[in-house]
Design goal:
The protein has about 280 residues and is of the alpha/beta class. About 35% of the residues lie in helices and about 25% in strands.
């Protein structure tokens, strides 16, 4: 009898220890990073700090999880290495989810659709097809899906490309005449053209791709917890409202901003878990 009481006491102690560890984890701020030049997803405020769609999204996700969040601004090319070095818990910056990246990171479901759009000077002739890229120089952000695209297609379409540490620098290359066009995501490109009257958006490459949050491949628990929070923010309209606030459009039915996946991750990519995962919201 005494042995049974001792074992029971040890079991209770173990439960308390586990609960305490869970409470400690919940009280630890989430650490993440963004490219702070990738407006309007993330940009520096005049009075300090960061603002943008992904900043608001990160704060809303943290609130849904009952956590604080620390968001660092850095170059995009340093985000995934920082994630894998455990500097960050996840990458909040828009990461284009594709098969190659899914081999090295674990994605949540997508939260926005992303096509690629060229930005040019208003005085330049519009790019109307990929064949018209021949002889041109395209500026892209280092480490981005746009860099991957130009590397894969430069020889095919006969263009050159330059890689910059930030998308803002790539846009500046177009403005200064060092590049004929900048290639970036639809939301960022439209924002750049809207903010600068000397620029315009032209040809769109329809990708069928989405932006998602990236986790380390060994952090399925973290991915699934964040994935659940993201589902909740879609269901309560938060993601759609943020798209209206920062991009000026209302996401359509069937788009990533409003569609809740049945499982966790992105179907068809490594790391997808088809196990039904209905949203558990506050």
């Amino acid at each position: 009898m005494r042995k049974a009481i001792v074992n029971a006491a040890l079991s209770v102690s173990a439960v308390i220890s586990i609960l305490g560890a869970g409470t400690a984890a919940a009280s630890t701020p989430l650490r993440t990073g963004v490219d702070a030049t990738f407006a309007p997803h993330a940009m520096v405020k005049l009075d300090g700090g960061l603002q943008g769609f992904n900043i608001d999204l990160g704060n809303a996700l943290a609130k849904q999880l009952g956590r604080e969040i620390q968001i660092e601004g850095t170059e995009f090319s340093g985000l995934i290495p920082g994630l894998n070095a455990k500097k960050y818990d996840f990458v909040l910056a828009p990461v284009t989810a594709n098969a190659e990246r899914a081999k090295s990171v674990l994605f949540t479901e997508g939260y926005l659709n992303t096509d690629f759009i060229f930005v040019q000077k208003k005085t330049a002739a519009d790019i109307k097809s990929l064949e018209e890229l021949k002889g041109k120089t395209i500026a892209v952000n280092k480490g981005s899906a746009y860099e991957q695209w130009v590397r894969e297609n430069a020889d095919k379409y006969g263009f050159k490309f330059d890689v910059y540490g930030s998308n803002a620098d790539a846009v500046q290359a177009v403005q200064s005449g060092r590049a004929d066009a900048n290639l970036a995501g639809n939301t960022v490109s439209m924002w750049a053209a809207k903010q600068n009257p000397t620029l315009k958006t032209t040809y769109t490459i329809e990708t069928g791709l989405v932006w998602a949050l990236a986790f380390r491949v060994d952090d399925k628990t973290g991915r699934d917890q964040m994935g659940n929070a993201l589902k909740c923010l879609k269901l309560d309209g938060t993601v759609s409202k943020l798209a209206q606030k920062w991009f000026g459009f209302t996401p359509q039915p069937g788009s990533a901003a409003v569609t809740v996946a049945a499982g966790q991750g992105i179907e068809g990519l490594d790391g997808y878990d088809a196990t039904p995962a209905p949203a558990q919201c506050k």
